[in-house]
Amino acid sequence: MACGPPVFYKFMLEKLVKAGFAKDRIFLSLERRMECGIGKCGHCAVGYPFTCLHGPVFSYWDAINLPELIYT
């Protein structure tokens, strides 16, 4: 599991995948998107998931399917 700024994820994910880690076994903390923590303000909405309600920990596989989880 990793926690850090978006630029960190980009390089870390490349190295982990290259090292043979499965994308469903890499987990990312996206707490930086949370504001109210209860899903009312909408700040943490990314597509259908709310990071405060459905996370804040997502697998890399989830992030591939919703790239804005990491890069926005």
Short description:
The protein is an alpha+beta fold and 72 residues long. It has 4 helices and 3 strands.
Q: Helical percent range?
A: 25-40%
Order of helices and strands: EHEHEHH
Task: Using the alpha-carbon principal axes, give the shape.
Answer: elongated
- From the N-terminal CA to the C-terminal CA, the straight-line distance is 20 Å
What composes the largest sheet? 3 strands, mixed
Taking all Cα atoms into account, the compactness measure Rg is 12 Å
Question: How large is the count of helical segments?
Answer: 4
Q: Structural class per helix/strand content?
A: alpha+beta
Strand segment count: 3
Low-confidence spans: none
Strand content: 5-15%
Q: How many domain regions? A: 1
Average pLDDT over all residues:
78
Sheet with the most strands: spatial strand order: 1-2-3
